[in-house]
Amino acid sequence: MDTPLDALDRAIINALHGGFPLCDSPYAAVAAALGIGEAELIRRLERLLETRVLTRFGPLYNADRMGGANVLAAMRVPDADFERVADIVNAQPEIAHNYRREHALNLWFVGAADTPDKVEAAFRRIEAATGQPVYRFPKEREFFVELRLTA
Amino acid sequence: MNRAREFPLPDATDRALIRATQAGLPLVPQPYHALGAQLGLAANEVMQRLAALLDAGIVRRIGAVPNHYALGYTANGMSVWDVDDAQVDALGAAVGALPFVSHCYRRPRAGDVWPYNLFAMVHGKSRDEVAVHLDRIARVLGPACRAHDVLYSSRILKKTGLRIGD
After folding, report:
1. Where are the domains of chain B?
2. Domain coverage including residue A26
3. How far apart are the C-alpha atoms of B69 and B72, rounded to whole Å?
4. Which of A60, B21, B124, B135 could form a disulfide with B129 if both were Cys (CB 3.0 to 4.6 A apart)?
């Protein structure tokens, strides 16, 4: 993240929000629209992923639609125990995201799996290993989801 | 690109494709051919299956996931609101329609620990910018909202997305 983004990096990130083509040479198609070569686009993407400007590039899967679940959960973790608990949470493969937030409930994470019972099992393993309750906040209704950050 | 399939999505081959791509698409000139070679499928079938998964909403999109902080979005606020149960669905739809709200959900309260039932994510380049947006949400909710808070993220501890096993 130390390397500043140049105008081309930003154009690439904005062009690749979604709609990556399903064709034989998709990188060449996107590169042509950006006025660069295929190899340049691939090289830039590799660097953006290596430097963690991008956390992922590819299909974004929605667990709900495949019969699974996404569940938001939170814990109240004492500062002295924070790293230990965060490591236990991160070690579960079902935990897709985990953030520290400024609140008494200071650890917020999302459990996602292709079946709801796997998410619940991960939360129970976290409770057993940490000795702390996991508060579950399953969505009851989705009003809007579309995160689009402009680079 | 609607394709009628007699079997439910995702089938065993779709699941193999999901496992092969959940960490990312190959960064090679012909990524669908590379996936096909790995899975024993023709490249066309890989593309058709991804198209069907997109149609079914199992794939939300094929694209890049940025690190918010790296793009300068340092104020990532999860705003939470205690809204009258009789009005939360209508008001949640109105909050979700605001252009600066990226995710908006109704969720259960948790007793004394957590009084809030409406969650709206707001990403900004400064907390001042987010505060302006929160004022706007408060105006939409009006007197139906009894209390609110905003929880800023201070560290990304994990951000891998869904991982399914065998």
Report:
1. 12-55, 73-152
2. 7-50
3. 5
4. B124
> Using an 8 Å Cβ cutoff, are B43 and B95 in contact?
no
Cα separation values, B71 from A148, B61, B62, B93, Å = 11, 20, 20, 28
Assess whether A39 and A68 both reside in one domain.
no
Tell me the CA distances in angstroms from B50 to A14, B54, B69, one per residue in order.
Answer: 22, 6, 30
How is residue B25 written in tokens? Answer: 């698409």
Question: Which chain A residues contact residue B89 at CB under 8 A?
Answer: 141
Instruction: List the single residue in A with minimal CA-CA distance to B14.
Output: A66
> In angstroms, what separates the C-alpha of B136 from chain A's closest C-alpha?
17
Query: Tokens 């963690």 label which residue?
Result: A52
Rounded to whole angstroms, how far apart are CA atoms B37 and B109?
A: 48
B161:A61 CB<8 A: yes
Total domains present in chain A: 2
Say if the Cβ atoms of A62 and B47 lie within 8 Å.
Answer: no
Same-domain check for residues A83 and A42: no
Domain B73-152 has CATH 3.20.20.140: no
Lowest mean pLDDT among A74-88, B4-18, B139-153: B4-18
Instruction: Compute the nearest-CA separation of B12 from chain A (Å).
Output: 12
Examine the domain organization and report whether A44 and A67 are in the same domain: no
A90 min Cα distance to partner chain B (Å): 6
CB atoms A140 and B68 under 8 Å = no
Q: Cite the beta strand spans of chain A per DSSP E.
A: 54-61, 69-75, 95-101, 107-113, 135-138, 141-145
Strand partners, A64: none
Q: Report the alpha-carbon distance of residue A49 to residue A58 in Å, rounded.
A: 12
ipTM score of complex: 0.87
Question: pLDDT, tens digit, for every residue of A1-58?
Answer: 456 899 999 999 999 999 999 999 999 999 999 999 999 999 999 999 999 999 999 9
